[in-house]
Structures are given as C-alpha cells and as structure tokens.
Amino acid sequence: MDHSNIILKVDRLYKTFGGVVALCDVSFDIKRNEITAIIGPNGAGKTTALNLMTGIYPPTSGKIILEERAISGLKPFQIASQGITRTFQNLQIFQNMTVLENVMVGLHTQTKSEFTSCLLHLPRVKKEERLVREEAFTLLRFFNLVDRADWLSDGLSYGDQKRLEIARALAGKPKMILLDEPAAGLNIKETEEMAELILKIKEGGTTILLVEHDMNLVMGISDRIVVLNYGERIFEGTPRQVQMDSNVIEAYLGRE
Q1: Do residue 167 and residue 103 come from a single domain?
Q2: Element (H or E) spanning 166, and its range?
Q3: 62 — alpha (psi -120 to 50), left (phi > 0) or beta?
Q4: Which of 41, 72, 80, 218 could be disulfide-bonded to 64 (CB atoms 3.0-4.6 Å)?
Q5: Running DSSP on this structure, what letter comes out for residue 245?
Q6: Per-residue confidence (pLDDT) for residue 216, from 0 to 100
Q7: H or E element that contains 158
C-alpha cells in the first residue's frame, strides 16, 4: 500500500466497557479519496470504532492517526476541527430549526467573528453571515434541498432528513466523513439515491468511512471493506474478495 496516500490509520485499537471487550487489537488503514466500509454482524464493534474515531469514547489502548497526527483521546470538537465529521444511526438534526439554519450551524467552524463583533452587528459580521448563507445554499442545491430551505427540518421526509444531516456534516469541508448507517430506514429508491449521493461526495474529494447493513449498497460503492466480528478484524479487502472469504461467510451465515 502507498503509505503517502493513507489519510487515517487505526493501530491496534482496543476498547473495553467494564468487563466487556468491544474492540480487540483492531488495525486498518483508510486511503485518501476512497470509500472504506466497515461491516459485520450486530455487536461486531462497528459503531464503537466510529465513536473512538470521533472522540465520543477514548480508546482503552491503541492509536488513531490522522495524517501523521495522533487524534486518539481528543474531544469530539477537537477531532472535528482536524477535519473529521460524522452522521449517526439515529438522526441528529435540529428539529426546531429550518433546513437552511441546520446547514449554517455546520458552517460555524469557518466563521471568525468574535462575540462582541456579533453583538454590535459590525459590517464584517454581516458580510460573513452573507457568505455563510451563500455557502449553505450551495450545499442545499447539491443535496436537492434548496426548495425546502425555509422548512422546519421536522417537516422533511425521513430520507430528506438523512440527506440534511449529511449536508450539515459536509458543511465544515472535512477531509473525511464517517457515515453511520445512512441507508437505514430508506426504501429501495431512496437507497439507490443515497448510493449516488455518496459517490458524488467521493468525487468531490472527500474521503468516506461507511458503516452500513445494506450489503447491496456496500458492495456497490466501496473501494475496500473491513470486516469485524466480536470486536476483532477478521478480513479486509475489496468487495469481491470479501464476498469470497469463508470467514466472512461464516460470520454472517454461521457454520453449516
């Protein structure tokens, strides 16, 4: 593997909750501008891995390295400032805010005005707010949500709310976005649209880490797949290689 092309390195990651081992000595690399998927049966440790990468949990041991800088143990806002954002299994949008306001919240890391300047409504604050609104509308157009910019977000369909959460995560122009089950709860047509959207995000230059149960989606868009089972990495390879591996088949279907 070309190590200069590795954006994130997970090195011997270990996480326990009391006496329960959630992840055990897990290592893998994520290459820049690719879609890497983490799959595995329920309880395999997939979401725990994402929570460690985004600072929700500190690792018991091991390292997470983003572009040669260790980020394991940092707070979520510190990791976000380094260029990693995420979505969640359960929607995390502001229901009482408009679609536009939700995306503008995601753009706050790009603003520079201090509290006093905002309080006094200085000209540079107004200019900055105008630029933030323009950027938010650009994102809404990309996600086909611009015609609902003034809607309260709880008025959107479930599929549109999923897209809104991804739009907000992309608003900070991250180097890498972690998508936790983006197709959960979607119908077949919405899942196909989500696959196309994820590929467009990749084409825009953002590295993607995907956790997803829909195997058609995973196999159709992933460049590489990491397979976890009972907290351990049991295989890593291309979609074709994963489909042919006996350990992966056993993990999903059981031993005959």
Answers
A1: yes
A2: helix 158-171
A3: left
A4: 72
A5: -
A6: 94
A7: helix 158-171
Query: What tokens appear for 43 in the block?
Result: 């309880």
Does residue 201 belong to any structural domain of this protein?
no
Q: Please tell me the total count of domains within the chain.
A: 2
Phi, psi at 215, each rounded to 5°:
-70, -30
How many whole angstroms separate alpha carbon 28 and alpha carbon 10? 5
CB 217 within 8 A of CB 27: no
Averaged over successive runs of 10 residues, the pLDDT of the chain (256 residues) comes to 81 94 96 97 93 95 95 92 90 88 80 46 66 91 95 94 95 94 95 96 97 95 96 96 91 68
Same domain, 238 and 116: no
In 3D, which of 2, 48, 41 has the Cα closest to residue 178? 48
| DSSP, residue by residue, 207-236 | EEEEE-S-HHHHHHH-SEEEEEETTEEEEE
Look at residue 251 in the predicted model and tell me its pLDDT.
84
Please tell me the pTM assigned to this model. Answer: 0.89
Q: By the 8 A CB rule, do 153 and 99 touch?
A: yes
Contacts of residues 232-238 at CB distance under 8 Å and 24 or more positions apart, as own/partner, are 232/24, 232/25, 232/26, 232/45, 233/26, 233/27, 233/28, 236/28
Distance CA 239, CA 228 (A): 14
